[in-house]
Design brief:
The protein is α/β, with parallel strands linked by helices and 163 residues long. It has one domain: HUPs (Rossmann fold, 3-Layer(aba) Sandwich). Helices cover 41% and strands 19% of the residues. The chain is built from six helices and five strands. A five-stranded parallel beta sheet has the order 3-2-1-4-5, with helices on both faces. The chain is globular. Bound molecules: coenzyme A.
Length: 163
């Protein structure tokens, strides 16, 4: 069974992430969405539990997609799934430099691990989680940026954080 691992911080998951996950699910037997409990990313908007809950909600319609949390190195996590590959979305040339570096470090840790790239859907090339966080902070329209079923959760969180 061929497994794709779609990793990310998902703070929060966007329609761009979901587009990559769904396309990977059409190509691979199974997709594991790996939510990084990033120790290095400061002041996330959501807790890991909240991020996982949102990802689970939006991938629920896809039977071959599951969600896990990873507290360690991604390249070590991937060992759990023999022959798995990492799937990343590339939005612009600027993503490539970073992803190239990530692939090299991941291969140092786990030389068997391959990374494959899907080009981002043109509707979402401008999109990132920080754009969504900023829009939410200022009460902007989130429709078209994140899946409909999590808009309420994001707005509620932004409201509490605004105080
Ligand atoms: N659509 C929309 N946004 C996308 C996207 C897509 N297709 N692909 C990436 N992004 C955005 C994210 O929204 C995020 O935006 P933000 O910076 O505005 O919040 C940004 O790109 C970075 O994505 P992120 O989800 O943070 O992932 P990453 O590429 O930085 O890497 C992990 C995340 C999961 C690979 C990484 O943090 C990890 O696994 N860490 C564990 C430790 C490890 O193994 N490190 C590597 C070796 S040192």
């Amino acid at each position: 069974m061929r497994t794709a691992i779609c990793p990310g911080s998902f703070d929060p998951i966007t329609l761009g992430h979901l587009n990559i996950i769904v396309r990977a699910a059409q190509i691979f037997d199974r997709v594991v969405v790996c939510v990084a409990a990033n120790a290095t990313k400061t002041s996330p908007m959501f807790t890991v539990e909240e991020k996982v809950e949102m990802v689970r909600r939006v991938v629920a319609p896809y039977p071959n997609v599951t969600v896990e949390v990873n507290h360690g190195l991604l390249a070590e996590f991937a060992r759990k799934y023999e022959g798995s590959v990492l799937i990343k979305g590339l939005r612009a040339a600027s993503d490539f430099d970073y992803e190239f570096q990530m692939d090299l470090i991941n291969k140092r840790i786990n030389p068997e691990l391959e990374t494959m790239f899907l080009t981002a859907d043109q509707r979402y090339t401008f999109l990132s989680s920080s754009i969504v966080r900023e829009m939410a902070h200022y009460g902007g329209e989130l429709r078209g940026l994140v899946p409909e079923e999590i808009i309420g959760v994001i707005e509620a969180k932004a409201n509490t954080q605004r105080g």
